[in-house]
Specification:
This protein is α+β, with helices and mostly antiparallel strands and about 400 residues long. The protein has helices spanning about 25-35, 50-55, 65-70, 80-85, 95-105, 110-135, 140-145, 145-155, 160-170, 185-210, 215-225, 230-260, 265-270, 275-285, 320, 355-375, and strands spanning about 40, 45, 60-65, 135, 290-295, 300-305, 305-310, 315, 380, 385, 395, 400.
């Protein structure tokens, strides 16, 4: 990826976010936040404070500029480009409302209510298997298969295809980590090609044999209303796949790392299961699986005492901002009894607020409830490998053992 030319003065903090070991909650990052609302980086401007990040996420002078993001990372055409640039996230105005209107037909309170018994049953079954095993790779045994099963259930993917789906859905989320190079482009391209082909076949099957799943609902709405094209619907569904699986997988794993460091919080949740909703908000605040959110200046404008040039990429550092002491009184500590004083940033804001946020919260709450009911506190029993710090972040392998319950 080419480094971004930006307008940051020379005296502002510089943070090397493309270092594989970079931590958005590290002391040097919090020190930079104390000095300034923003920092410089190889990726452009970093927004470090909560108020500014929240405001800029709603600012119409910024957009996603998917084309610019691709080209900045050296991708000018091909399957990744053709999927990413027209993605719903990269549309604003009437086009965004048109695409969002179709998806909103599926993400309803009724849908969430109907899927929760399935979530609970799967989570309890997996927790029981981990209890019997004694130790496990938590990603492989729970964090990955649970949201995969939920997503496939929603979409109407046959259980025998889960493993095929898993490789694609794990890799497609790396699209937000292209800056780290290596084999990431190849992995994302394989995932996009595989998912495009599979979703196309599934759409055709659901058109002929509709069921009560999300794809059947959206295919029927697309054909009856004609507001989106078949290609737009396929793009929407491929995007939903990684949004519904990869982010939740890593959020669950991040939660286990947090609790392994704070077993007293795990035991407190077991004693007071009514704290589950607060615990989820605190997990999301402390260690979000989406630690950064990109925006790009669509025009020249002034903000916070500096000139932002058109084409400047700005990265909202959600994890850093969600520990901002100006907003969160005890932002530098993790406590599941705390009531959040501000909404998390990882779900976005304004017209781009994540439609799947209620489902993600429900899935996390049911998963965590099943785990603390059956298992004692987790302990890390081997090396942990991590996704890159930018993009969707969390453990790729997480060897754990659990105490007895």
């Amino acid at each position: 990826m080419a480094t971004t030319v930006n307008t940051a003065p020379s005296d502002v903090p510089f943070l090397n976010v493309i270092d594989p070991e970079f931590d958005f909650g590290a002391p040097e990052v919090m020190a930079a936040q104390a000095r300034s609302w923003y920092a410089d980086s190889p990726m452009g401007l970093l927004v470090l404070r909560y108020a500014e990040a929240q405001e800029l996420l709603r600012d119409r002078r910024l957009d996603h500029n998917g084309r610019g993001y691709m080209e900045q990372n050296g991708v000018f055409d091909g399957p990744i480009y053709d999927w990413f640039v027209p993605m719903i996230n990269n549309h604003d105005g009437d086009d965004h409302r048109r695409l969002r209107g179709l998806v909103s037909k599926a993400f309803t309170p009724r849908m969430i209510s109907e899927i929760r018994p399935f979530i609970r049953a799967e989570a309890e079954r997996m927790a029981e298997e981990m209890a019997a095993a004694g130790s496990c790779d938590f990603v492989e045994s729970f964090a990955d298969p649970l949201p995969l099963a939920v997503m496939c259930k929603l979409l109407g993917v046959p259980r025998e295809d889960y493993d095929t789906f898993r490789g694609w859905t794990n890799d497609i989320g790396l699209v937000f980590s292209l800056v780290h190079g290596g084999d990431i482009v190849e992995r994302v391209e394989r995932a996009v090609v595989g998912l495009n082909g599979y979703i196309s076949a599934l759409m055709e099957d659901k058109a002929k044999n509709p069921g009560d799943d999300l794809i059947s609902t959206l295919v029927t709405a697309q054909r009856e209303e004609g507001q989106v094209s078949e290609e737009e619907l396929r793009n929407l569904l491929v995007t939903l796949v990684f949004a519904a699986h990869d982010t939740t997988c890593h959020q669950l794993s991040n939660a286990m790392v947090i609790f392994a460091e704070r077993p007293e919080q795990w035991n407190l949740l077991a004693e007071r299961p009514e704290l589950a909703p607060q615990a989820i908000e605190e997990i999301i605040r402390w260690s979000p699986s989406t630690p950064i959110i990109y925006r790009c200046a669509a025009e020249d404008f002034d903000y916070g005492g500096m000139r932002i040039a058109k084409g400047t990429f700005m990265t909202m550092c959600a994890q850093t901002a969600q520990r901002d002491p100006r907003v969160f009184e005890y932002g530098d500590s993790f406590d599941i009894t705390t009531t959040s004083t501000a909404p998390p940033l990882l779900f976005g804001a304004g017209m781009h607020y994540c439609l799947g946020a209620p489902l993600a919260r429900a899935e996390m709450a049911d998963a965590l409830s099943a785990l603390v009911k059956r298992l004692g506190p987790p302990s890390i029993v081997g090396p942990v490998s991590w996704r890159p710090p930018t993009g969707i972040h969390g453990p790729e392998t997480l060897p754990l053992s659990f105490g007895e319950r």
